[in-house]
Amino acid sequence: MSFTAPPLPIFAGENYHIWVVKMKTYLQAEDLWSVVKNDIEPPLLRANPTIA
C-alpha cells in the first residue's frame, strides 16, 4: 500500500477562512508551525531528506 500526502493548500483568492485552517493544519503536521508563529529559521534538512 502506498501513501500520497494531500496537496499543499494553495490560496486561490476565495474562501480565505477555510484556506487558513488547511494551511495551519498542514504546517503543524510538518512540524513547521512554530517556524511561522515565532518567525524563526526552519531546521536544516537531514543528510538524506527523501528517506527522512
TrEMBL record:
The lineage of its organism: Eukaryota, Viridiplantae, Streptophyta, Embryophyta, Tracheophyta. Residues 13-37 form the DUF4219 domain. InterPro entries: DUF4219 (IPR025314). It comes from Gossypium anomalum. This is DUF4219 domain-containing protein. It holds the Pfam family DUF4219. It comes from the Eukaryota.
